[in-house]
């Protein structure tokens, strides 16, 4: 990942390939934002006018490159839009800063070092700029380092290597901590993005589990892996039922971070379908090209546990990665089969493409056995949630209204788009089955909510639980924006990490 430093240099004296400044939409045209004073001075105070001449308005997403005047050591100035200028005495929103920094880092791919002179009034603002820059500078290197792509144009596409944050106070503890937190969170988000972007012939349940073991060694986490033999013996009928059609057998990974003074324990459960073909209920062409992303929930859980550990949070966090490949074959589960889930409930599989809830059902029962204070599952679970909320917003369902609200507020705070969704009890009836406790599919209308209701059946009595359906935002197919690249996004990680921080601080019941 790119390196990030807090620099005491001014934008005029920093030796770099570019200086990044902010431009906002003022009432009478673009205005240069705080942090850019030295740059404006080098333009004889006429920078806003120059930007306007070049067509800049200050709108979000805008990036305007201009040659630096002689007063600067850097040859290029990059002005990025921050949207509407805040009212007098108000600060810029953190997400606007995060996105602008991300746009700048993306625009500067191929250059070595840039100084970011965006408005960073306080440590939180510095955290947002640092996070946005580090997330925006991400690029997936196929095969580790360009190996899988002959014509990599490596130099041109290489991410911005060095980010110097100007205006933040390097000797101030709060700023230093904000930068360190941004580095850790961005590294973990980028770890998850890499896993999601890996082709499914390289990342299968076994190699995913191995990655968890490697990280466990590196960061002192306890990692236990149940392989197909252990899963069969243990009665994990959901995970086995989904994985049995594939030559790459399933795994259940438990990855645990513990703090000696922790008072609370969180369990995070991730859907880890390394490839979802649909199984015997095969997906048609046009619906299966991006299904390597179906392990994004497990990647998010994995990354969040590692982040909690690296941040040394005073809370226990246990991650459960339910890993399987959903393939059709002579040994695959058929529509009509009845599976006996971990814990004993039976499920009639009406559609083998509704596989996420099967692997998660097992994992939720297993996670419940340890009686955590709360469980949050993360899953690319339903196309219905994408229809409901679009490509950038995940749905939050829960068995506890206050917990759902907390998660919604946390998501908003960390700059992740999310929305609370209900679990209407009447949708449960359509999942009744004549041959099992229930079927894995109900009515089509409200399919995302029905999936949530299904999962709820596997949560232990009295345990607070929430379900994040990230099917929309987990994988970004259109043009990059802000700090969001094409491909894996790392959706929900920042929300999980903040939940762990707040739980550690005792802010949640
Ligand atoms: N992995 C898919 C959901 C999905 C869709 C993820 C689009 C990302 C983008 C899930 O396993 C699935 O196939 N769900 C079915 C359920 C249905 C058969 C009840 C769906 O949503 O169509
Ligand atoms: Mn599916
Ligand atoms: Zn799936």
Molecular structure report:
There is one protein chain. With 509 residues, the chain is an alpha/beta fold. Helix content is 33%, strand content 21%. The chain contains 15 helices and 20 strands. The protein has an eight-stranded mixed beta sheet with strand order 8-9-11-10-14-18-15-16, with helices on both faces. Strands 1, 2, 3, 4, 5, 6 and 7 form a seven-stranded mixed beta sheet that branches. Strands 12-13-17 form a three-stranded mixed beta sheet. Helix 4 (123-136) packs parallel to helix 6 (173-197), helix 9 packs antiparallel against helix 11 (356-368) and helix 13 (401-414) crosses helix 15. It binds ligand BES, manganese (II) ion (MN) and zinc ion. The site of manganese (II) ion has 4 residues, from loops.
Please sum up the structure shown.
This protein is an alpha/beta fold and 509 residues long. 33% of the residues lie in helices and 21% in strands.
User: Structural class from helices and strands?
Assistant: alpha/beta
Question: Percent range for helical residues?
Answer: 25-40%
- CATH fold name of the largest domain, please? Aminopeptidase
- Give the end-to-end Cα distance, rounded to a whole number of Å: 36 Å
Task: Give the cofactors and ligands.
Answer: ligand BES, manganese (II) ion, zinc ion
CATH architecture of the largest domain: 3-Layer(aba) Sandwich
CATH superfamily of the largest domain: Zn peptidases
Number of strands: 20
Instruction: Report the portion of residues in β strands.
Output: 15-25%
Q: Spans of 5+ residues with little confidence (pLDDT < 50)?
A: none
Backbone shape: elongated
Mean pLDDT: 96
* Number of separate domains: 2
User: Which strands sit side by side, in order, in the main sheet?
Assistant: 8-9-11-10-14-18-15-16
Main location: cytoplasm
InterPro entries: Leucine_aapep/pepB, Macro_dom-like, Peptidase_M17_C, Peptidase_M17_leu_NH2_pept, Peptidase_M17_N
Subcellular location: Cytoplasm
Family: Belongs to the peptidase M17 family.
């Amino acid at each position: 990942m790119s390196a990030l430093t807090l620099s005491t240099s001014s934008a005029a004296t920093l030796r770099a390939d570019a200086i990044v400044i902010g431009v906002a939409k003022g009432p009478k045209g673009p205005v240069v934002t705080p942090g850019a004073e030295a740059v404006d001075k080098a333009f004889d105070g006429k920078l806003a006018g120059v930007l306007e001449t070049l067509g800049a308005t200050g709108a979000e997403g805008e990036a305007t490159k201009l040659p630096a005047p002689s007063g600067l050591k850097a040859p290029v100035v990059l002005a990025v839009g921050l949207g509407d200028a805040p009212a007098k005495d108000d600060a810029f929103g953190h997400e606007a800063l995060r996105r602008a920094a991300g746009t700048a880092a993306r625009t500067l791919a191929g250059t070595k070092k840039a100084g970011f002179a965006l408005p960073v009034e306080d440590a939180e603002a510095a955290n947002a700029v640092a996070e946005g820059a580090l997330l925006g500078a991400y690029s997936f290197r196929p095969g580790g380092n360009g190996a899988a792509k002959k014509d990599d144009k490596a130099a041109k596409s290489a991410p911005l290597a060095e980010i110097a944050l100007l205006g933040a106070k390097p000797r101030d503890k709060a700023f230093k901590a904000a930068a360190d937190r941004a580095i850790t969170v961005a590294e973990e988000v980028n770890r998850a993005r890499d896993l999601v972007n890996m082709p499914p012939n390289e990342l299968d349940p076994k190699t995913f589990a191995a990655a968890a073991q490697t990280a466990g060694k590196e960061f002192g986490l306890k990692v236990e892996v149940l392989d197909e033999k252990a899963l069969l013996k243990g009665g994990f009928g959901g995970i086995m039922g989904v994985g049995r059609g594939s030559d790459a057998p399933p795994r259940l990974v438990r990855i645990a971070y513990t703090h000696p003074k922790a008072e609370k324990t969180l369990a995070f459960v991730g859907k880890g379908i390394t490839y979802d073909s649909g199984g015997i209920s095969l997906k048609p062409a046009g619906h299966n090209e991006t299904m390597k992303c179906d392990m994004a929930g497990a990647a998010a859980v994995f990354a969040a546990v590692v982040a909690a550990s690296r941040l040394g949070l005073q809370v226990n966090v246990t991650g459960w990665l339910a890993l399987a490949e959903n393939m059709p074959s002579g040994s695959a589960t058929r529509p009509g089969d009845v599976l006996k889930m971990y814990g004993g409930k039976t499920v009639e599989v009406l559609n083998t493409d509704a596989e996420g809830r099967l692997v998660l059902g097992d994992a939720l029962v297993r996670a419940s056995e340890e009686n955590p204070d709360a469980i949050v599952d993360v899953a690319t679970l339903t196309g219905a949630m994408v229809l409901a909320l679009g490509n950038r917003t995940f749905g939050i369902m829960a068995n506890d209204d206050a917990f759902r609200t907390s998660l919604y507020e946390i998501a908003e705070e960390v700059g992740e788009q999310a929305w609370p969704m209900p679990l209407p009890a009447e949708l449960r009836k359509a999942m009744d089955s004549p041959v099992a406790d229930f079927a894995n599919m109900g009515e089509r209308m409200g399919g995302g909510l029905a999936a949530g209701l299904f999962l709820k059946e596997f949560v232990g009595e009295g345990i607070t639980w929430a379900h994040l359906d990230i099917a929309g935002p987990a994988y970004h197919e259109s043009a990059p924006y802000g700090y969001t690249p094409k491909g894996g996004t790392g959706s929900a990680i920042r929300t999980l990490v903040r939940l762990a921080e707040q739980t550690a601080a005792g802010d949640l019941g």
